[in-house]
UniProtKB/TrEMBL annotation:
This is tripeptidyl-peptidase II. Ca(2+) binds at D599, I600, G618, D620. One of its GO terms (cellular component) is extracellular region. It comes from Coniophora puteana (strain RWD-64-598). Its EC number is 3.4.14.10. Keywords: Calcium, Glycoprotein, Hydrolase, Metal-binding, Protease, Secreted, Serine protease, Signal, Virulence, Zymogen. It catalyses: Release of an N-terminal tripeptide from a polypeptide. Residues 183-199 have a biased composition (Polar residues). Binds 1 Ca(2+) ion per subunit. Its cofactor is Ca(2+). One of its GO terms (molecular function) is serine-type endopeptidase activity. InterPro entries: Peptidase_S8/S53_dom_sf, S53_propep, Sedolisin_dom, Tripeptidyl-peptidase_I.
Length: 641
């Protein structure tokens, strides 16, 4: 495994030799069960190299909700006054004591200073250790685990830290986490194709991907939107009729994980039929960790997601507005959400902003006090809106790990970025239709709902899926319902994250007024983060894939569509000299804004042997607040400072 962080050598002179600190070891993290598809392989050779990474605890992270609300709540005097990269680094970077404690512990245990590196954002310490050294440091045993796909992963089932070090470390990798390689999880990363039949409500096996869309002519009028979704159908459904004007100051980011990749020939085929001025136009690609739009492997699994996201994302913002494609991971290692986040946070800026860590020293003091952080993020600045249609089940990750990643999304929000994630395609079940057993195991026979991450992170905006009602037209009142064709909209309640204040009123209203018709033991009723927040159509998308038009289904469709609409709202605000909309949840849940959504009140999201939750008036854990009306929302957002 290759390290994906940029790391800075610690200066030798910074730490004087200290007396060894002796403190008893305590359990830090433990994995109860192996994630689906993995099995124990063999003991790892003691001499093998292991890039150990320590996620250092950050300062002020417990105040995160306060900071985020301060710049994101429309009633706050600081609404829209987003933070710079430097502000974020200074506020949250681990303090000197944290860095020193971990550093000293490592040197006291025989790790030479030259081998210890600190990331420029000061969030991580890395050591190239041997298995033997790591086992001694963490009081654990390393093994090689195998996945049914043939991939291997080095890890352990639990690890320990000395008590004086414990409070300075969020977690250590590689240990109990199976975070990398979203690529190996193909069934969760791809939207679904035909058949068009509705999945039985008691389905357990999950939707299937099947035949191609064979009919040749899609009417260009709006009479068949209930059978074939095209960009014009979406423009009509969401009142998106807008030509951007602030395009030079704006960008729309779509994230893809290699080997999933787009084909230019597919984008061109789509453009020929639906957006002729995009013919020959490619997205602006930012390669992360060796990512590139591979063309060696081509089929629905490799091209479906990227082609869908880019064909609709690019068409809906129009040819004047550049779309940025973050292509993450190479063909060998793939990439995880954390790799992506590493790349667009301050660390990345250090490279792209002109600094060179092999040359530029981090003086006067990399560990707090004197260090000012990168001055300007330059070209690596995250885009104003970022849409991602890939997801984990929350239970795939440890709570520490999910919390750390969630804090990164919060930082993006502080910096004015809107982060959208699709809510999942299996209703109240997790990816691959897995449900939870009370002991934490995931199984198709599980008895508890299985929430999706990052949708359960309170600092992302989670997007569910709707569909046109049978035979409905875009002109009629309430033409949409919760998606019940091929996929079901992911939704429910987190087991890791408490309910953020911005949604408390809406969720409590739902639970009180429309008590869910499923046993309460099946979902978390302790007041946890509820999702999705919003939705958009996710059925019957006409998408050019591998030289043919296919029908595609999924929340994978919904997220890039809403991302395009928010990008246009940003355009209007930027043109008016205002800030980007940033983290939108505190705004959209206010009474004023919630009333502007197209409320979805029909349908449900089955899973785990139940009918799931119901779409109801107001917010619900199927379609959130509802779908967007651009005309209404842009007007409301232009009224904010
Ligand atoms: C795309 O346009 C071609 C040429 O006009 C037409 O034959 C084809 O049916 C169209 N496909 C779709 C899906 O609209
Ligand atoms: C969106 O809002 C506008 C302005 O109120 C309204 O005229 C239009 O009918 C709405 N569109 C939809 C699809 O509901
Ligand atoms: C695409 O090809 C890969 C590997 O050849 C295969 O595992 C996968 O099932 C294929 N996907 C589809 C939709 O045919
Ligand atoms: C950093 O500087 C070194 C030494 O001059 C050079 O070899 C390397 O290519 C530079 N790296 C970047 C990212 O500019
Ligand atoms: C968890 O519970 C399920 C259902 O009772 C059982 O089949 C499984 O073996 C348990 N797994 C572990 C690791 O305890
Ligand atoms: C789920 O339950 C069915 C019926 O009891 C059984 O045949 C199947 O093996 C179980 N599947 C798993 C993954 O435990
Ligand atoms: C939709 O329209 C078709 C053709 O008119 C009709 O056969 C079908 O029953 C209608 N479906 C519903 C749900 O109304
Ligand atoms: C329910 O969610 C809360 C977080 O809001 C968490 O602390 C608790 O452990 C969860 N309960 C279960 C059974 O997972």
């Amino acid at each position: 495994m290759r390290s994906l962080l940029s790391l800075v050598a610690l200066s030798l002179s910074l730490f004087a030799a200290a007396e060894p600190t002796i403190s008893p070891y305590a359990l830090h993290e433990k994995r109860i069960v192996l994630p689906q598809g993995w099995s124990y392989g063999r003991k790892h050779a003691a001499g093998s190299a292991l890039p150990l990474r320590f996620a250092l605890t950050q300062q002020n992270i417990e105040e995160m909700e306060k900071y985020v609300m301060d710049v994101s709540h429309p009633h706050s005097p600081n609404y829209g006054k987003h933070w710079s990269v430097k502000d974020v680094l200074e506020k949250f970077s681990p303090n000197r004591e944290t860095v020193k404690t971990v550093h000293d512990w490592l040197t006291e245990n025989g790790i030479e200073k030259e081998r210890i590196r600190l990331s420029p954002n000061k969030g991580w310490i890395e050591v190239d250790a041997t298995i033997e050294e790591a086992e001694a440091l963490l009081q654990t045993e390393y093994s090689v685990y195998s996945h049914v796909s043939g991939k291997e992963h080095v890890g352990c089932s639990e690890y320990h830290l000395p008590s004086h070090v414990k409070r300075h470390v969020d977690f250590v990798t590689p240990t109990v986490h199976f975070d990398a390689r979203l690529t190996s999880r193909s069934s969760e990363t791809t939207p679904q194709t035909q058949p068009q039949s509705v999945i039985p409500k008691s389905f357990r096996g999950g939707p299937k991907s099947a035949g191609k869309y064979a009919e040749s002519i899609v009417p260009t009028d709006l009479s068949t939107c209930y059978e074939y979704i095209t960009p014009d159908c979406l423009r009509a459904l969401y009142s998106l009729n807008y030509t951007p004007v602030a395009t030079a100051d704006n960008t729309y980011g779509i994230v893809e994980y290699t080997p999933e990749a787009y084909l230019q020939t597919d984008l061109d085929m789509f453009a020929t039929n639906f957006s002729t001025d995009l013919y020959g136009v490619a997205p602006y690609m930012v390669s992360i960790d060796g990512g590139y739009a591979q063309t060696e492997y081509q089929n629905f699994s490799y091209n479906g997601e990227s082609d869908l996201d880019l064909e609709y994302g690019m068409t809906l913002v129009g040819s004047e507005q550049t779309v940025t494609l973050y292509q993450a991971g190479d063909m060998v290692e793939g990439a995880s959400f954390n790799n992506f986040l590493d790349a667009i946070d301050g660390t990345y800026c250090t490279f792209e902003g002109g600094n060179n860590y092999t040359q530029d020293a981090y003086y006067p003091d990399p560990y707090g006090g004197g260090y000012e952080g990168p001055q300007d993020c330059g070209t690596a600045k995250p885009t104003n809106v970022i849409s991602t249609s890939y997801a984990y089940n929350e239970a795939d990750l440890t709570e520490f790990y999910a919390a750390r990643q969630c804090a990164e999304y919060a930082k993006l929000g502080l910096m004015g970025v809107t982060v959208l994630y699709s809510s999942g395609d299996y209703g109240v079940a997790g990816n691959d239709a897995l449900c939870l057993f009370p002991n934490g195991t995931q199984s198709v026979n599980g008895t508890l709902f299985n929430p999706t991450f990052p949708s359960t992170c309170p600092y992302v905006t989670s997007v569910g899926a709707t569909m046109m009602k049978p035979n409905a037209t875009v002109y009629q009142y309430q033409p949409e319902m919760a998606c019940e064709e091929v996929i079901y909209s992911g939704g429910g309640f987190s087991n890791y994250f408490a309910m953020p204040s911005y949604q408390a009123e809406a969720v409590e209203y739902y639970l009180k007024t429309y008590p869910p018709d499923v046993p309460s033991y099946m979902y978390n009723t302790s007041g946890s983060r509820a999702y999705p927040d919003i939705s958009a159509n996710g059925a019957n998308y006409v998408v050019a894939i591998d030289g043919e038009f296919e029908l595609v289904y999924g929340t994978s469709c919904a997220s890039p569509v809403n991302g395009a609409i928010f990008t246009m709202i940003n355009d209007a605000r930027l043109a008016a000299g205002k800030s980007t909309i940033g983290f939108i949840n505190p705004t959209i849940y206010t009474t004023n804004f919630a009333a502007l959504f197209n409320d979805i009140t029909l349908g449900d999201n089955p899973g785990c042997g139940t009918d799931g939750f119901n779409a109801t008036p107001g917010w619900d854990p199927v379609t959130g607040l509802g779908t967007l009306n651009f005309t209404k929302l842009v007007a409301a957002w232009l009224e904010l400072s």
